[in-house]
Amino acid sequence: MGPLEGLKVIDLARFVAGPYCAMILADMGAEVIKVESGGGDSLRLYPPDLGGTSLNFHVMNRGKKGLSLDLRKPEGQAILKALVAEADVLVENFVPGTMEKMGCGWDELRAINPRLIMSRISGFGQDGPYAARPCFDSAAQAMSGLMDLTGPADGPPVLMGVFVCDHVAGLYSTIGVLAALQARERTGQGQMVDISLLESGASLLMTAIPNQILNGVTMGRNGARGRTVAPSNAFQAGDGRWVLILCGGDDMFARFLKAIDRLELLEDPRFASNAARVANLAATEAIVADWCARHDSAEIEAAMGRAGVPSAKIASVAEMVDNPQLRHRGFIVEIPQGGGVSLPMQGPVTRLSETPVTPRGPTPRAGEHTEAVLESWLGYDPGRIAELRRDGVV
Amino acid sequence: MGPLEGLKVIDLARFVAGPYCAMILADMGAEVIKVESGGGDSLRLYPPDLGGTSLNFHVMNRGKKGLSLDLRKPEGQAILKALVAEADVLVENFVPGTMEKMGCGWDELRAINPRLIMSRISGFGQDGPYAARPCFDSAAQAMSGLMDLTGPADGPPVLMGVFVCDHVAGLYSTIGVLAALQARERTGQGQMVDISLLESGASLLMTAIPNQILNGVTMGRNGARGRTVAPSNAFQAGDGRWVLILCGGDDMFARFLKAIDRLELLEDPRFASNAARVANLAATEAIVADWCARHDSAEIEAAMGRAGVPSAKIASVAEMVDNPQLRHRGFIVEIPQGGGVSLPMQGPVTRLSETPVTPRGPTPRAGEHTEAVLESWLGYDPGRIAELRRDGVV
Question: Which of A57, A139, A263, B210 is most exposed, with minimal Cβ within 10 Å?
Answer without folding.
Answer: A263
